[in-house]
Amino acid sequence: MSRQHAPLVVGLVSGSHVVNHAYMLLFAPAFPLLRAEFGVSLSALGLALGVISAVVTAGQLPLGHISDTYSHTAVLVGCLSVGTVGAALAAVAPNYEALVVAAAVIGLGVAGHHPAHYPLISAAAPEAYRSRAYSVHGFAGALGLAVPFAAVSAAVALGYGWRAAFGVIAALGFLYTVATVLAIRYIPRSIARAGAEARNEDSEAADTSEVAPTGRLRSFAARFVDYFRSLAGAPLILLLTALWFVNSVAAWGIRSYAATLLDAGYGLAPGTASLVAGAMLIVGAVVLLGGGYLADEIGPFPVLFAGYGSLVVLAALLSTALLSVFAAAGLVLLLAATIDLSRPARSTLTDLASERGSVGKNFALMTVGISAGGAVAPPMFGYVIETAGVGPAFLGVAAMAGVAFGLSVFVARAARRDGV
Hints:
The protein is mainly alpha-helical.
């Protein structure tokens, strides 16, 4: 693939990543304000946020199938449009029930972004620069997670409120959607419909007889079942799904409880501990960019091994509570970076292991693994902290990193066997 269209495609999907991640965490920074407005509990608001994640998880594989079968750019524009409608509905929600409905609409929109983004990058970015393309995309997603916090804080400081913040984010999303509609006209069909064209080529190669059209008329459900059957013969994809899940468990354990570790384990003031945990995420986002460069230059596997090996050591050291508070804070700054370093490598491996007609579905499957890890980790590590303490919880993070390291070894063997 020529490098001609790569900047446009990577730029478009990275901007979409910012918007979709802003929608995904739209409610979180406004919890106290929403609680006062609607008179509901924090658990009820957590349920509303959970609705977004639940719909995102449920929508992954169907939207991945649509992306691969029809058009990646159509799913890109569709997810932006639906998510923007959901954010606007949230801004004007008259009651809690309406907020939950808005959450479901947001989730339906957000569900389409990964199944559209990754195949577009795969089709547009030259292989020598693919990890860097994925790292730019990931960095943009990290910025998107910060947008709602900045918007709500600014709106409150200026004397407005959460509705104004939600409305501004929805308005920006609308403008970006319009810009995307205009820009995708310059993306060639070979990229916009890469999955569909690959499937058509495979169908023509497999059967040029009169019965070939019958295959094209199979139902959506039948093709979807065929995809699941094909996974049985794709051990590398299954191993990568497991790796993304285990990685997500470790990542959410770190994100959720790094501040708790510094507070309860090392006696750092809660405000300072939260500040360090926030800085940790920024460091991780910057390191992610470097991870893309390294994966392109030295290959994905050394980056995987370095990232997970470092996390085993750092998490195990922090779990002892024997470090000085300054050393602990310094190591926490690097915790997220160990995982973010390897994210472009995981994306590139998933790309290389995928048939061209299944990139969207395979990345959707990886996103299911990410979502499942995000659902499991916070309550699991929270329970360990409540019953055994924060040290054992981070020893558990180290154990998860060890499992990820082991899975990386199996992934490397499977990739060599498959010629990836």
